[in-house]
């Protein structure tokens, strides 16, 4: 193997690693010991191939684990794969990976990173202070690491939409060519849809309370969280807290599918002769795809608001609600609030991505291994950035909800300007944030449920 030490030295090194991982000194390394050892060494999560090898491949013992010979065989195969990866990144073939080569590798994937960011990534693997990575440093860093290639490094920071906290205005997720070829993309979409459905159902009472306060709360009635919950329970019982949840879950599948297909088509149109999209171009493509999906499924948004606010016995179901709106108000009512909804995508997506990029840079500057933020770090980053995005677009969201809830039979056809002026005149600037408290209370449980269910679904679907 070109660039590798002799067999004797390699086996000595593997033997030392085996002894370090074999904590109970039974002559075998199992998955539990592998995880404990990597935690001590600061190596993050074990490579899935190592877990599979330890649990089944070449293991004659039904209790699991690998002896020294089996462990050495696995490491030999692993080093061969790592050497191929190393040579693919070492573009000038000088035996070292430098900062410019790291930047070029990320650029080839459509991601622009600064010199400082590239230096932080290199520093996490550079042990001799040369600001380059040689084969030994690369091998030791990734030998039992969960990353298979440079593209995998981006997956940890890829801004995923699976952490569903109820507002689907985010830019669609990016799938690699490998994920598309292997069919993993649709499994990830299914896992995300199931996670979103469970998350929305689990936090439906807070979502209905948010809409209830957006429409009914004012300075005069001083409606708060406990008062709103009490009013809803007294009017319709405990089950009424889940009104509107059915259609809220139902619209996940069409919206995700439309957004994904539109994103792929828009991306192709922007690409032209380019190999990859820049970050700004991805943002434009994602925003246009989100706007396309929102335009097509927007009548479901109006129906969701009406069903969420309905009184007991007002509608027999989804179809009856749609029929009554069409008979009494016409088809245009199904697009009431469309303009503030579209305008809300801009501050939401800009703030969301800006905060996420800031957190990404903070992680890099902390000196930690950029390739292995914990699940808690990733969950916290996405949750915080999404929350900031919601706060930035919340006034427009409130205006949209007020417009969706108004019946033209009871008053004049509402306009965005008219609703905004009425809120400011009657309640002041704070009126634009009515219902914000249940929105914030919903963030953590919604994100947590979505994350846990998504991970469970990935395992179930074999992602």
UniProtKB/TrEMBL annotation:
Xref: SMART domains: EFh
Span list, region Disordered: 38-62
Principal cellular location given in the protein's record: mitochondrion
Alphabetical list of SUPFAM superfamilies matching this protein: EF-hand, Mitochondrial carrier
GO MF term list: ATP:phosphate antiporter activity; calcium ion binding
Topology in membrane: Multi-pass membrane protein
Catalytic activity: ADP(out) + phosphate(in) + H(+)(out) = ADP(in) + phosphate(out) + H(+)(in); dAMP(in) + ADP(out) + H(+)(out) = dAMP(out) + ADP(in) + H(+)(in); AMP(out) + phosphate(in) = AMP(in) + phosphate(out); Mg(2+)(out) + phosphate(in) + ATP(out) = Mg(2+)(in) + phosphate(out) + ATP(in)
InterPro entries the UniProt entry points to: EF-hand-dom_pair, EF_Hand_1_Ca_BS, EF_hand_dom, MCP, MCP_dom_sf, MCP_transmembrane
Record-annotated EF-hand domain positions: 9-44, 77-112, 113-148
Subcellular location, record wording: Mitochondrion inner membrane
Family the entry assigns: Belongs to the mitochondrial carrier (TC 2.A.29) family.
Subunit: Interacts with MCU. Interacts with MICU1.
Annotated function: Electroneutral antiporter that mediates the transport of adenine nucleotides through the inner mitochondrial membrane. Originally identified as an ATP-magnesium/inorganic phosphate antiporter, it also acts as a broad specificity adenyl nucleotide antiporter. By regulating the mitochondrial matrix adenine nucleotide pool could adapt to changing cellular energetic demands and indirectly regulate adenine nucleotide-dependent metabolic pathways. Also acts as a regulator of mitochondrial calcium uptake and can probably transport trace amounts of other divalent metal cations in complex with ATP.
Protein known as: Mitochondrial adenyl nucleotide antiporter SLC25A23
Taxonomic classification: Eukaryota, Metazoa, Chordata, Craniata, Vertebrata
């Amino acid at each position: 193997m070109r660039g590798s030490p002799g067999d004797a030295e390699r086996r000595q090194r593997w033997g030392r690693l085996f002894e370090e991982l074999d904590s109970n000194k039974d002559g075998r390394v199992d998955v539990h010991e592998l995880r404990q050892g990597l935690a001590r060494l600061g190596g993050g999560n074990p490579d899935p191939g190592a877990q599979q090898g330890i649990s089944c491949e070449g293991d004659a013992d039904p209790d699991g684990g690998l002896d020294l010979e089996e462990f050495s065989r696995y490491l030999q195969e692993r080093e061969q794969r790592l050497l191929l990866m190393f040579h693919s990144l070492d573009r000038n073939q000088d035996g070292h990976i430098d900062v410019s080569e790291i930047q070029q590798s990320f650029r080839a994937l459509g991601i622009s990173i600064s010199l400082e960011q590239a230096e932080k990534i290199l520093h996490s693997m550079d042990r001799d202070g040369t600001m380059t990575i040689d084969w030994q440093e690369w091998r030791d860093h990734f030998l039992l690491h969960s990353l298979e290639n440079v593209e995998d490094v981006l997956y940890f920071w890829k801004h995923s939409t699976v952490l569903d906290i109820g507002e689907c205005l985010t830019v669609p997720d990016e799938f690699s060519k490998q994920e598309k070829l292997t069919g993993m993309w649709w499994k990830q979409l299914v896992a995300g849809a199931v996670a979103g459905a469970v998350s929305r159902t689990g936090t439906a009472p807070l979502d209905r309370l948010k809409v209830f306060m957006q429409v009914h709360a004012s300075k005069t009635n001083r409606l708060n969280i406990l008062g709103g919950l009490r009013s809803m329970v007294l009017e319709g019982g405990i089950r009424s807290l889940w009104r509107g949840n059915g259609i809220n879950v139902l619209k996940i599948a069409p919206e995700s599918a439309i957004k994904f297909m539109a994103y792929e088509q828009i991306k192709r149109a922007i690409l032209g002769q380019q190999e990859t999209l820049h970050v700004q171009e991805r943002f434009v493509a994602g925003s246009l795809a989100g706007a396309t999906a929102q335009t097509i499924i927007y009548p479901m948004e109006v129906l969701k608001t009406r069903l969420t606010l309905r009184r007991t016995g007002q509608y027999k179901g989804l179809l009856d609600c749609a029929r009554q709106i069409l008979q009494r108000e016409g088809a245009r009512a199904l697009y009431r609030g469309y303009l503030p909804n579209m305008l809300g995508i801009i501050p939401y997506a800009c703030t969301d991505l800006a905060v996420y990029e800031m957190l990404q840079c903070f992680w890099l500057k902390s000196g930690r291994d950029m390739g292995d933020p914990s699940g808690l770090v990733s969950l916290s980053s996405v949750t915080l950035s999404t929350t900031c995005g919601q706060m930035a677009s919340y006034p427009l969201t409130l205006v949209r909800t007020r417009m969706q809830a108004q019946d033209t039979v009871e008053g004049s056809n509402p306009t965005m300007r008219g609703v905004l002026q009425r809120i400011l005149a009657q309640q002041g600037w704070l009126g634009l944030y009515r219902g914000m408290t249940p929105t914030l209370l919903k963030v953590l449980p919604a994100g947590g449920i979505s994350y846990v269910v998504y991970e469970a679904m990935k395992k179930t679907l074999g992602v």
